[in-house]
Amino acid sequence: MNAARQATIIGAGLAGALMATLLAQRGWRVEVFERRGDPRVHGFAGGRSINLALAERGLHALRAADADGAVLRQAVMMRGRMVHPLEGEPQLQRYGRDDSEVIWSVSRGELNITLIDAAEAAGAVLHFDRRLDSVDFDARVATYRGDLAEHRHPFHTLIGCDGAGSTLRGLMDARRALGERTEWLGHGYKELEIPPAADGGFRIEPNALHIWPRGRYMCIALPNDERTFTVTLFMALHADGSGDPDFDSVATAADARALFARDFADTLPLIPALEHDFEANPVGTLGTLYLDRWHLGGDAVLIGDAAHAMVPFHGQGMNCAFEDCVALAQALDADANLSTAYATFEAGRKPDATAIQRMALDNYIEMRDLVDDPDFLLQRQLELALQARHPQRFIPHYAMVTFMRIPYSLALARSEVQRGILEAATRGHASLDGIDWAAADTAVLALLEPLEDAA
Ligand code: FAD
Questions:
Q1: Which of 247, 347, 365, 439 has its CA 20 to 30 A from that of 85?
Q2: Per-residue confidence band for 371, with pLDDT thresholds at 50, 70 and 90
Q3: Over the chain, what is the mean pLDDT?
């Protein structure tokens, strides 16, 4: 029944290549147009983060495309946060209860190539070096630029997977306002590299996401399978009166060395090319994109970052984009009418996108400031204890977002209730010893219904 259905996908990044795979597997005729060259020929020209944390939501989507095995073969397991205080030894804070609850560090380039291969194997036709330039929605023709020429292709419907700076979004908005609003974080990031040790191994613990929290700024490091780490420095773009460093005042290689010597001293021997990396790599900006509408009737729909870009601090942007792909494929399976299928997709996913955007913003404060705060650590201990006492009802916030596939909006609502229980139970306590367990149990039973994961 679906054999004649057709879609044109804009962007062969993470969401575009997965969306193409899922639709082609269902018998759709799929064409994909990508601005960059074919990464299998030219190498991956990323531009954004070099590696990413993959969690259950993303893995579930990769399973649907039969791409999970290939991706996990190249991934590095991360059991928890390795927190590096200003003074003292680093401490591992596990993400879950055991090694069944972990996340995976994957290379953006390798992941993208795996998904492009999967899309082609499923029958999608990919056109590289084709940047969407304009769309005639009445004539149903899109114009692309590439190889010093203009290329016109008819389309049936457009699926915008062209990322945070989406061209398709702008063209849709010109036809009917989408209600676009971006809130810039005012903080940016820069990537640096920890190379392998002299013996070819990892220089620091590989199975962890390393964090150097420093209050209003931080460094993190994720492992790569070639035994390197990608380090990312996050801090304010401009001075904000707090006296903390910012990218305006830390502008040169010498400034960077001085900052690292003062605040991240244990990383200095690990990053031999600090000066080079700092000067060569650009400062990335971060923001949250909100839209009132994600689709234009049955003509076009936006998914992934093009619809709801978020700050990266929950490690969920790609995971959420992959969930979008599965949800859109399901909506299209259930409804032959594109306009109503897109409306169903948007109504189902928008509250969840808004929820993870908010949780991603909150998590910046947790990562850069709270992970070495005694009150936060006590609440984290209590979370695990309450989970052990009420495994169906009290599931830690991080686990609901990362190891489950319940809607993000439900995870956010339950997390807010749970935070209230944790704050009330730990108020005035420095350890779990004096906790009023009866009161905590009563609150859990009264406020939290048993929870099952999405089917
Ligand atoms: P993109 O990956 O941006 O892909 C868009 C594609 O469209 C690209 O291939 C681009 O070349 C192409 N394109 C753009 N314009 C056009 C055009 N006009 N015509 C044709 N093609 C076009 N997410 C996680 O889940 N975990 C993490 O750990 C994580 N870490 C991150 C760290 C940083 C520093 C950043 C910035 C983001 C991070 N993210 C993470 C978020 C993640 O990168 C994005 O959510 C994800 O890449 C979104 O995928 P996408 O396909 O929607 O967009």
A1: 247
A2: confident
A3: 95
What does 8-48 look like in DSSP terms, one character per residue? EEE--SHHHHHHHHHHHHTT-EEEEE-SSPPHHHH-----S
Joined together, the tokens standing for residue 21 give 């795979």
CATH superfamily of domain region 3-74+107-181+287-362 = FAD/NAD(P)-binding domain (3.50.50.60)
- Distance (angstroms) between ligand 1 centre and the Cα of 163 equals 5
pTM of the model: 0.97
Please name the residue ranges forming H helices in 264-373: 274-280, 305-308, 317-334, 338-365
Contact 326, 60 (CB under 8 A): yes
The amino acid at residue 443 is A
Q: What is the Cα–Cα distance from 95 to 137, expressed in whole angstroms?
A: 47
Which amino acid, one-letter code, is at 78?
M
Residue 2: pLDDT over 60: no
How far is 13 from 159, CA to CA, in rounded Å? 13
- For residue 312, pLDDT over 80 is answered with yes
- Average pLDDT rounded to a whole number, residues 85-90: 94
* Amino acid 4: pLDDT: 65
Contacts of 36 (CB under 8 A, 6+ apart): 42, 45, 128, 129
Which residues are near ligand 1 (CB < 6 Å)? Answer: 10-16, 33-36, 48-49, 52-53, 131-132, 161-163, 167, 189, 232, 284, 304-306, 312, 315-319, 321
Q: What is the pLDDT of residues 173-219, one digit of tens each?
A: 999 999 999 999 999 999 999 999 999 999 999 999 999 999 999 99
C-alpha dist (Å) from residue 53 to 50, 224, 327: 11, 11, 21
The protein residue with its alpha carbon nearest to ligand 1, atom 1, reads 163
Q: How far is the CA of 315 from the centre of ligand 1 (A)?
A: 12
Q: What pLDDT was estimated at residue 213?
A: 94
Nearest atom (ligand 1) to Cα of 131? 19
Alpha carbon distance 205, 91 (integer Å): 11
Instruction: Give the number of the atom of ligand 1 that is nearest the alpha carbon of residue 316.
Output: 25
Q: 446 CA distance to ligand 1 centroid (A)? A: 41
